[in-house]
Amino acid sequence: MTEKDVQMKNKEEYTNEESTEQKVIFDTNIFEQIKGKKLDLSVEKIFKIPLIRNIFKRQKEEYYVVSQKEHIIDCKYTKGKARIPIINKRIINKEIQEIKAKEQIKYVHLGGTEILIKACFREGIDTPIEIYLADDRIVEPIERSIISAVKGNLIYQKFKFIISANYSVAINDRNIDKSLVLYWKMSGIELAPGSKIFTARCKNLYVLTTKHKITAKNKI
């Protein structure tokens, strides 16, 4: 007997917002026919045979999104206590509604983020700035929430960097808005209350996907 001879008794697939489930059922006669034949159904090998593997191989759907938003920052937010959410659940849900297979989308894979900081004051002022990207869902140990930290200076009025987050977040995660946020600290200048000190343009690449996606480093 080969795997082509195996007939499934029943095959089921079920999906909701919490999970996706597949199941295949063999009857006793089929199982007894397989045991000891060419098709090895020992516990160690059953999950490796092509028939079983293909049954549970779900069709992967991926939709790539590139977005950009510019934030105008008030001068009172220079000491690291303010933050900008890079990922917005309301926007993601709206994007999913435009997808034909929207019921199957379970994850958003965070790919690359480009941050461009532009000063709202003249060139030549020594203004060190520190930028942090963090996953604020991580509360312990807090230092592990930092994804990337860079230092720069707005003496020449602009500062740009790119990071690759490379992790997936479930669409139904209640804290998805905290999964990628921008913090900053700035010194060397003080403006009158109500003044705008810089703009932060955030350009994102992320993937709406049916399967939990993890990519090789430096790839999306």
Strand content: 35-45%
- Rg of Cα set: 25 Å
Low-confidence stretches: none
Structural class: mainly beta
What about the largest sheet? 4 strands, antiparallel
CATH topology of the largest domain: Jelly Rolls
The CATH architecture assignment of the largest domain turns out to be Sandwich
Total beta-strand segments: 10
Count of folded domains: 2
Helix segment tally? 3
Terminal CA distance: 42 Å
The spatial strand order of the largest sheet comes to 3-10-5-8
CATH class of the largest domain: Mainly Beta
Question: What's the rounded overall pLDDT mean?
Answer: 81
SSE order, as H and E?
Answer: EEHHEEHEEEEEE
Organism: Solanum verrucosum
Protein name: Movement protein
Keywords: Coiled coil
InterPro entries: Caulimoviridae_Movement, Viral_movement
How would you describe this structure in keywords?
Jelly Rolls, four-stranded antiparallel β-sheet, 10 strands, mainly beta, 220 residues, elongated, 10% helix, 3 helices
Topology:
Layout: E1 10-15, E2 20-25, H1 28-34, H2 50-55, E3 62-74, E4 79-85, H3 89-97, E5 107-119, E6 128-134, E7 146-153, E8 158-170, E9 181-186, E10 196-209
Antiparallel strand pairs: 1-2, 3-10, 4-9, 5-8, 5-10, 6-7, 6-9
Keywords: Coiled coil
Organism: Solanum verrucosum
Protein name: Movement protein
Question: Could you walk me through the main structural features you see in this protein, from its secondary elements to its overall organization?
Answer:
The chain is mainly beta. Helices cover 10% and strands 42% of the residues. It has three helices and ten strands, in the order E-E-H-H-E-E-H-E-E-E-E-E-E. The protein has helices spanning 28-34, 50-55, 89-97; strands at 10-15, 20-25, 62-74, 79-85, 107-119, 128-134, 146-153, 158-170, 181-186, 196-209. The strands form three sheets. A four-stranded antiparallel beta sheet has the order 3-10-5-8, with no helix packed on it. The protein has a four-stranded antiparallel beta sheet with strand order 4-9-6-7, with no helix packed on it. The longest helix is centred in the middle third of the chain and has 9 residues, at 89-97. This is Movement protein. InterPro entries: Caulimoviridae_Movement, Viral_movement. Pfam families: MP.
